Amino acid sequence: GESVGLHLPTLSVQEGDNSIINCAYSNSASDYFIWYKQESGKGPQFIIDIRSNMDKRQGQRVTVLLNKTVKHLSLQIAATQPGDSAVYFCAEWGGANSKLTFGKGITLSVRP
Amino acid sequence: NAGVTQTPKFQVLKTGQSMTLQCAQDMNHEYMSWYRQDPGMGLRLIHYSVGAGITDQGEVPNGYNVSRSTTEDFPLRLLSAAPSQTSVYFCASSYRTGVTEAFFGQGTRLTVV
Fold first, then answer.
1. Alpha-carbon distance A15 to B80, whole Å?
2. Where are the alpha helices (DSSP H) in A1-112?
3. How many CA atoms lie within 13 A of B113 on its CB side?
4. Do the Cβ atoms of A43 and B4 come within 8 Å?
5. pLDDT tens digits along B18-56
6. Over the range B54-84, which residues count as b (16 or more CB within 10 Å of their CB) and which as e?
């Protein structure tokens, strides 16, 4: 699979490959880190979250990894499918200040 | 159960006009929020509410007002529309404060000319 940071707008992967989407965060005090998926013409949809005291969490075909030492969050998608084509946002939950803060997003494009 | 419903889906305003974007949720969620989405800027928080009668400012509140008189509704008012407010607006709700799973509406695409 390929990996790319959020400073690059688009990630292109072959159908069936694994995808890795990376995100750098800045607020060490955030309680949760979250991944959202936005399909064209729709609102964002929750994928998975991870609490700040964890370093890995698995869902269905997705895994989120948190590296607090370098303030890095990643989303791994196994066996990428055409339906995974979307914009992916990492987000932080600010804890006491009750705000969900989103990153700028990256487009995942799946080649058939 | 319709989730989060936003109206209208599309709107064109002239500079200086005012309007209200409607948002309603039928999930009895305490927490509601408004975001704007601009190309290359991601989603930015405008205002949010942790419950009926309570609202607070987000990252980009200027030019917008909100109120939360009921649990279900969280309208966003543009006081005097400006071209800089051309954007896609999303309303979201969560069961309560601190819950990371937010449910988003389909969005309102607003153009100010």
1. 47
2. none
3. 3
4. yes
5. 999 999 999 999 999 999 999 877 899 999 999 999 999
6. ebeebebbeebebbbeebbebbbebeebeee
**Interatomic CA distance for residues A63 and A77, integer angstroms:** 7
Closest Cβ–Cβ partner in A43, A99, A105 for B42: A105
B43 Cβ contact partners less than 8 Å away, ≥ 6 residues apart = A44, A89, A102, B35, B36, B37, B90
Rounded Cα distance between A63 and A60, Å, is 8
Q: What is the dihedral of CA A107, B11, B64, A45, to 10 degrees?
A: -30
Size of chain A, expressed as the number of residues it contains? 112
Q: What is the pLDDT of residues A80-94, one digit of tens each?
A: 999 999 999 999 987
List CB contacts (< 8 A) between A54 and chain B.
none
According to DSSP, the β-strands at A106-111 and A100-102 are: unpaired
Quick check: B105 and A43 CB within 8 A? Answer: yes
Backbone φ, ψ for residue B83 (5° rounding)? -55, -30
